[in-house]
Structure formats: structure tokens, C-alpha cells
Specification:
Layout (H helix, E strand, L loop, with lengths): L6 E4 L7 H15 L6 E5 L1 H11 L6 E2 L2 H5 L7 E5 L16 H16 L5 E4 L4 H5 L6 H8 L9 E5 L4 E4 L9 H4 L2 H19 L5 E4 L13 H15 L4 E5 L1 H4 L2 H4 L4 E4 L2 H12 L4 E5 L4 E5 L16 H13 L1
Length: about 325
């Protein structure tokens, strides 16, 4: 019987809570129903076993060789593609020490993706400070840059929940740079990419709302971004049969009446949409990078060093990812 393409999981920052939540979620999925696609963990076998021992958790997996992946010799179970990593303790302080290890894990995953042997990659959280070293605003841009093929001009970050998703037009940049970065072309690119994601993966023509930049969509300055940039972009998108409305004032948009009208909300900057979204859904969301020929997803939180080894971490974000994947099958 021919298996479905494997789901790749890059373990990410070694000093994080990811192994804990991964073991909980995969065991939960296995109990509810048999996994009907291969899952390949990409990371250190020695590290994951050491952390599972401390956490008093079990996770059954089979070590796999690259040729087995490349020749599609996988069954519907959990595998591990081992990437060597030297460490003294199972949980240590986050530092630059893990940078090369994380890069190797991503590279192994991207090789498989670029050969179209898989269509989905999930990564555990990483430290932007130590791993990206200001070379990229976030992992969204890092994975997009490392990928051979792109479906859009720039990556689009979508924080996804089946009830409501949000997307910041600009991602991890200082507030004083936001107005310089937004433009009509970027808005059009991002909205079309979000629209295509919903059509392709959920068979749904989404209702999209777009927020203004200024309080109440008004400003006393000579440049009014709502009139000069956002409204012209909306008019052009409407001509292209995109179901979009706005710009809306951000301070009152996330009320119950508005939330139920739309599938996705596009904001001008990161915290404009992430703050209300996380207040509503907490960690029941996943971070999806759009604009690639594959789906890249990650948990919507960081390594959480204060919770290392405590076995109390929230699994909602990773569980949301697998619920979404299973809805595609």
C-alpha cells in the first residue's frame, strides 16, 4: 500500500519545551487513532531520549536512514532522522552553541521538501536572538529564503485558528519602521496569498478584513496611509474578486460581532493583530508560512526556558497544527 507523504518535524532549539509537548501530542494522536501518514522527527536521538527520561515520558520511534526517505520506504509511523549534537546536560541555557545543530536540522528537512518528498514541515521554537542573529526578522523569512521555489514574492505569516486567523503585514520589526515598509504592492501580494491558501487547503473563499495603521484610521500628517496606500490596494483586490473589506479601526475591530464575520484579518504590524488574537485564543493557534510550495508550520510560542523539564507546558498550539493537518487528509 502506498503511503502518504511524510510530515517533517524539525526539533528546533534543543533547550526548549518542544520534546515535552511533542511527546504529549503524538501519544494523544496515537491513542485516538492510528497515524495514517509517516512522521519524521529531525534532530538528535541522544538528546530526545535524554529529555524524555527526565520528563518521564515515552515516545516510540524508529531511526531512519536518508535512503529510506528518498526511496519512499516508509510506513505510517514515527521515525527519527538523527542529527548529531554534543551536550553536557539534557537541558542547558540557550546559547549560540545550538546554532549549527539547528541549521543542520533545517537543511535536512529542506532537502526533502525541495525534492517534493514531503509537503509539510513543522519546526519547534528557536531563539531568534541566538539562531538568527539579526540576519532574518524571524523563522518565517529564514525558511522562505532557504527554499528553492516560491509561490509569492515575499513570505506571509498567518497565525491560524479555524475560527479566525490573523496576518501581520510587517513581522518582527520596530514600530518606527512600520510606516516605511507598508505599500500597496505588499498588501496585494499578502492578501492574494492568504486567499489562495484558503482556497487550496480549505476549499473556502475567505472573507478578509484589513485594519488601518493610524488610530481611528486618521492622521494629521501629510501622508495618510489609509487613503494613499490601503484603500487603493483594497479597490484593486476587489476588482480581482477578493472578498475583502476595510480599512477598519483596530481598537474596536476584535469585538464579537466582527470576529464572526471574517475568516482572516490583515493588520499592519505584529502586535496590532497578535495581541488581541492571543488574548482570545491564547496558544490555540499555529504559525503558518505562506508563499511556499509546501506548508511550514510552527508552534505559536518560544522555547519557554522557565518551563524546561517541569512537564507542565501547554500543548494547544501543536495540537492545533495536527488538527489542521488531519483536516487536509
Amino acid at each position: 500500500m502506498k503511503t502518504k507523504k511524510p510530515i517533517l518535524i524539525v526539533l528546533g532549539e534543543p533547550n526548549s519545551v518542544f520534546v515535552e509537548i511533542l511527546s504529549k501530542v503524538l501519544n494523544k494522536i496515537s491513542i485516538k487513532k492510528k497515524i495514517d501518514y509517516p512522521i519524521i522527527l529531525i534532530g538528535s536521538k541522544k538528546l530526545i531520549l535524554s529529555q524524555l527520561k527526565i520528563l518521564k515520558k515515552k515516545l516510540k520511534f524508529t531511526e531512519v536512514k536518508k535512503k529510506e526517505i528518498y526511496y519512499n520506504k516508509l510506513g505510517n509511523k514515527i521515525y527519527l532522522l538523527n542529527v548529531e549534537y554534543n551536550f553536557k546536560k539534557a537541558f542547558e541555557n540557550i546559547s549560540k552553541k545550538s546554532k549549527d545543530y539547528i541549521s543542520k536540522c533545517f537543511n535536512e528537512g529542506l532537502k526533502i521538501l525541495n525534492l517534493r518528498l514531503s509537503d509539510i514541515i513543522i519546526n519547534g521554537p528557536v531563539s531568534k536572538k541566538h539562531f538568527l542573529e539579526k540576519k532574518y526578522p524571524g523563522v518565517t523569512e529564514y525558511v522562505f529564503d532557504k527554499s528553492k521555489k516560491k509561490l509569492s514574492q515575499k513570505p506571509v505569516m498567518l497565525i491560524f485558528n479555524k475560527k479566525l486567523s490573523v496576518s501581520p503585514l510587517t513581522t518582527h520589526i520596530p514600530l518606527n519602521e512600520v510606516s516605511k515598509k507598508i505599500n500597496k504592492k505588499l498588501i496585494i501580494n499578502n492578501v492574494i496569498t492568504i486567499n489562495n491558501f484558503y482556497l487550496r487547503n480549505l476549499s473556502l473563499k475567505p472573507k478578509i478584513a484589513i485594519l488601518g495603521l493610524n488610530p481611528h484610521c486618521e492622521t494629521k500628517s501629510k501622508l495618510n496611509e489609509e487613503k494613499k496606500i490601503i484603500l487603493p490596494a483594497i479597490k484593486k483586490l476587489k476588482k480581482g474578486k477578493i472578498n475583502i473589506n476595510g480599512p477598519f479601526s483596530a481598537d474596536t475591530f476584535f469585538i464579537k460581532k466582527n470576529k464572526t464575520k471574517y475568516n482572516a484579518i490583515v493588520g499592519m504590524y505584529h502586535d496590532q493583530v497578535l495581541t488581541p488574537f492571543k488574548t482570545i485564543f491564547e496558544f490555540n493557534a499555529s504559525n503558518i508560512t505562506l508563499g511556499l510550495p509546501f506548508l511550514r508550520m510552527s508552534v505559536d510560542h518560544g522555547p519557554n526556558k522557565t518551563m524546561l523539564g517541569k512537564n507542565k507546558s501547554n500543548i494547544d498550539s501543536l495540537l492545533n497544527i495536527f488538527n489542521f493537518i488531519n483536516s487536509l487528509k
